[in-house]
Each structure stands twice: as C-alpha cells, then as structure tokens.
Amino acid sequence: MTTGTDEARPDQPREEDAYALDRRAVAAILYAVEVEDRIKLIELMEPLHAADIADLLEQINPYDRARLIRLYDKEFDGDILSELDESVREEVIGVLKPDVLAEAVRDMESDDVVDLLEDLEEPQQETILDALEDSERVAAEQALSYPENSAGRLMQREVVMAPEHWAVGQAIDFMRANDDLPEQFYHVILVDPRLKPVAQVTLGKLMATRREVTLHEIAEEEFHTIPVDQDEEDVAYAFNQYHLISAPVVDADGRLVGVITIDDAMVVLDEEYQEDMLRLAGVSDESSLSDSVAATSRRRLPWLGVNLITAICGSLVISQFEAAINQLVALAILMPIVASMGGNAGTQSLTVAVRALATRDLTGSNVARVIRRELLVGMINGLCFAVVLGTVGMMWFDSPLLGVVIGSALVVNMIIAGFAGTVVPVVLDRLGVDPALASGTFVTTTTDVMGFFVFLGLASVVLL
C-alpha cells in the first residue's frame, strides 16, 4: 500500500546528496586500502568519475590518501589531477611514482597541463615537463610565458581548423583521417591563408549539411575572437554575456594560437564567485578544507587583526559618551541593536553591489540610481523597524523619549548602511582595489561607528 507522500527509502540518497560520495562505497574503498587488496580497490574505483575520485582524495586524511595512491598505482588517471584542489594536488604529485605521473600527464589536454603546472613549485614543474613529449613541452612552456590569469594560460592548443573555401565533405574527411583531434570540441574554426580566424562552424551544422556546400556558407553569424593576453575574468564575462560555447584565441598579429571552451570559462566564473564569497568574509581565497591548522590560522590572522582595530574605533566613540551611559544604563543595553541592524543592512547592500560589479551590471551610468534606491530602501526598512524597536524601548524602560531616540537612530543608521554598502565597493573598484576583499571592513566600521555616535549623541541631547 502506498501513501500520497513520496518518502525516500533509507537506502535512497536525499535529493541534496544525489551527487555526494556514497559513505558505504568510501568505507569499502578505505577497507580495501587497509587490507592492501588492489584488485578490489580497482573494482570499487572503476565506476567513479574522475571528479568523484578527486573528492575522495580531498576528504580522506593524508595517510590514507598516500596509501590509496600507491595501491591504485598505474590506474591513476590524468583527469583526476586536473580535478584535484590545488592544496591537495601538490601532495598527490609527490606520492605518485614518476612513470605513473608521466603517463597521467600525457593523457591530459594542454590547458589542463598548464593549469597543473602554474600551481606547482619549480622542481615539480620540471618533473611534469620532463614527462611530456618535446612538442608538448614547448607548447606548455610557451603557455606559461603568457601573463598569469590570461587567455593564453586558459586556452588549449589543440584546435580543429579548416580553410573557409573547403566543402563540408572535405572537412568531414579531414577529421575522420586525423588522429590528433581534441577529445572534445564544438566548432571547426575557419582560417585564411595567414591562419587568421575568420569564422567558425558548429559540428551540428556541419553534420547536417550536404557535402558539396562550402564551410563559409554555413558559418555562424556571431563570431568572437579572444586576444591571447586578455584577462581570464574578461574571457569568462564574454562567454557568459554572449552565450559562447567556444572561441578562438589569437596572438598580437591576429593569428590562431588556441581555443577556449565553455567548461574552462565556467571554471573561471566559479572561482571568481568563490573568491568573492571568501573575501567578503575576510578569508583568503586560497583557503581550503584540506589546509593545515597552521596555514588556516596564518591566513585568517591579518583580517582578524584589522577587525580588532575597527572594533577599537567603535569603542573609542562609545568612550566619548561615558558620562551619558553612566547616567542612563539603558543606553548600554540598547546601543548594540542599532549597530547590529546597521551592519546587517550594510552587508546586504554590499553583497548586491559587489556581485553587480563582478557581473558589470553596476556601472558609472546607473550608480547614482542604485545609490538612491539603497537610500530609500534603508529609510523604509529603518522606519518599519524603528516603530518596533521604539515601542520595545518605550515599554521596556518606561520612557517614550528613549523610544523616539532609538527609533530615530535606527532610521539614520539604516540609511547610512545602504549608502556605505553601495558607495564603498564602487569607490574601491575605481581605485583598483578588490571590493570583495576590503569593502566589508569599511562598511561594518562605518555602520558601527555611526550607529553608536548617532544613538548616544541623540540620547545625550534629548534625554540628559
């Protein structure tokens, strides 16, 4: 008998855990490692995607990680390396046997090899480079010569190109006869005699068109090229903005040197999002769950020190009203509420502004309108909560004037919070400072200091 409610059985994963590693599978893998059963380990690992194996390696302790890698041995795949978090990848490379590492690296796409190399120390870079064929080594070293976080580092060298005057049949025959095609690609790039890209054709269009039709006739109307030295953030923005699947990369002379695909662009977008989230919390964007206690502590200390200094600034403001607080203890009880509400409102405005700056929705043409909106939002929300807090203050301490004072202070601080939460990241962005990294400290300091000052100042004038 079934009921109207769909309840998951105990052996079924919850929806939010649908793609999480199965705990029983992990336990079985660790048991196989413990008893050194290589055949069983390979059997258990075979169904797992490279990304899942990377997650497994990141989640287990270093001792078990090293034993698993040694036992897994020659089955270790290059895709696993490309999926690993940077903080664990270097450790894994140190455990792999040289011949296993060499074979894993040879199976990787050129862009994944470069991504692997740029995060390693020089000795380990040499180990990876020595494992490559001469042509692949030259390509990797050339990619590393491009600026960090540029399109040249992001692109893959393997491209599929054809002259624009070729017929569809020629292009298909060429691809079928070529053993060096990339494992995954989405376009055939059309080039002129000087290897300058002029258009591109999607594989779907190519396969659906008669053999005698020329490639130029079925080229996409929208066509974008990426300069090799363009910042990867701009590349990711272009992919997101123009809905690109892949785009050719060109050098200073406009010649084709590589291609960037959507998966690489989305990785950049995801990394930028994670960096913004971590930096808004005052945490280094290099932080990871795999980091040691010492490394984690070292990265967090500087911003905690900055927060200590800003907290002292707020305390200095409070100290100026020591006499008022001594005369009316209610002020000490209520003033954290004003600062806290302002801080939360400021963080809300700040988060929206930082995200809008990252997606380039907040620009010089609309910044004034956005600031006005945040001021009005702060005022409306401040008035709503001022009624509640003013009533609470009045009933709690039997003082109507105290209710008016704290309500008025809350409205003012909420307006200041909306203003600071928008203006501070915009100003920092104009100054070339990452708004996600520094805005939070300035905004919370502003709302704390102004909240204390307005509330205690009004109280001193009206109540004493």
UniProtKB/TrEMBL annotation:
Q: Which InterPro entries match?
A: CBS_dom, CBS_dom_sf, Mg_transptr_MgtE_intracell_dom, MgtE_N_sf, MgtE_transporter, SLC41_membr_dom, SLC41_membr_dom_sf
Question: What is an example of a Pfam family matching this protein?
Answer: CBS
An example of a Gene Ontology cellular component annotation for this protein is: plasma membrane
Q: Which UniProt keywords apply?
A: CBS domain, Cell membrane, Magnesium, Membrane, Metal-binding, Transmembrane, Transmembrane helix, Transport
Superkingdom as given in the UniProt entry:
Bacteria
Q: The CBS domain covers which part of the protein?
A: 219-277
CDD domains cross-referenced by the UniProt entry: CBS_pair_Mg_transporter
Listed transmembrane segments: 301-321, 327-354, 375-397, 403-428, 440-463
Q: Does the keyword Magnesium apply?
A: yes
What GO annotations for molecular function exist for this entry? magnesium ion transmembrane transporter activity; metal ion binding
Physiological role: Acts as a magnesium transporter.
Family membership: Belongs to the SLC41A transporter family.
How does the record describe its quaternary structure?
Homodimer.
NCBIfam families the record matches: mgtE
| The protein, known as | Magnesium transporter MgtE
Species assigned in the record: Ruegeria halocynthiae
* Upper classification of the organism: Bacteria, Pseudomonadati, Pseudomonadota, Alphaproteobacteria, Rhodobacterales
